[in-house]
Amino acid sequence: MPSARDRVLDAYETLLIEHGGAAVTLDAVAAAAGVSKGGLLYHFASKEALAAGLLDRLRDRSAADAEAIRNAPDGAVAYYVRTSAPGGAAPGGLTRTYLAVLRLADSTTAGQAVRDALARVDADGFAALLDELHDPVLAWLAQLVGDGLYLRTLTGTPLPPDLSVDDLLARMRQYAPPPA
């Protein structure tokens, strides 16, 4: 069972995703998390502290995902592309937290902190891809492909008909073969 702190962050993510940051209040987060407002304030003393907690969660999940990218049995590129595609979300809630942070960026004065956290996620993924590919241009291309698939995931846009992630990876492997 998740801790009260995690339940609060889960509820905050849900409210951000469903309603946007402007509609989220501490009372609404406490109610959605099933904790008292005092219980919420014990973990997060303000709405700004709650946002900072979400950014910390994003950084932690990004670091865990970067490690999973590096250790993926079928290689970093395949993992990155597969988990970026619709239906292939990375384990650990990174996609959900990332989407909530994007919604937070739309409605907060914490803009620089949000941009810094998103830049950290980008840097983690790039570094993990570079570890496998050893070519910054190929790593960036793989990241851009993953980013495009990730956008489809976030917006619910399906892949083109008669094409699959495996088709995409097969073509990408012509330019960036898997590790030996």
Helix content: over 70%
Low-confidence stretches: none
Q: Radius of gyration over alpha carbons?
A: 18 Å
Please provide the count of β strands.
0
Strand content: under 5%
| CA(first)-CA(last) distance | 41 Å
The helix-strand sequence is: HHHHHHHHH
Taking the sheet with the most strands, its summary is: none
Any idea how many domains? 2
Helix run count: 9
User: What is the average per-residue confidence, as pLDDT, rounded to a whole number?
Assistant: 89
Alpha-beta content class: mainly alpha
Tell me the overall shape. elongated
Outline the structure in words.
The chain has 180 residues and is mainly alpha-helical. The chain has two domains: 45 residues, Arc Repressor Mutant, subunit A (Orthogonal Bundle); 119 residues. The model has no long low-confidence stretch (mean pLDDT 89). Keywords: DNA-binding, Transcription, Transcription regulation.
Short précis:
This protein is an all-alpha fold and 180 residues long. It has helices at 4-19, 26-33, 37-43, 47-71, 76-84, 94-105, 111-133, 136-155, 165-172. The mean pLDDT is 89.
Using brief descriptors, characterize the structure shown.
mainly alpha; 2 domains; elongated; DNA-binding; Homeodomain-like_sf; transcription regulation; HTH-type_TetR-like_transc_reg; DNA-binding transcription factor activity
Task: Describe how the helices and strands are arranged.
Blueprint: H1 4-19, H2 26-33, H3 37-43, H4 47-71, H5 76-84, H6 94-105, H7 111-133, H8 136-155, H9 165-172
Helix pairs in contact: 1-2, 1-6, 4-5, 4-6, 4-7, 5-8, 6-7, 7-8
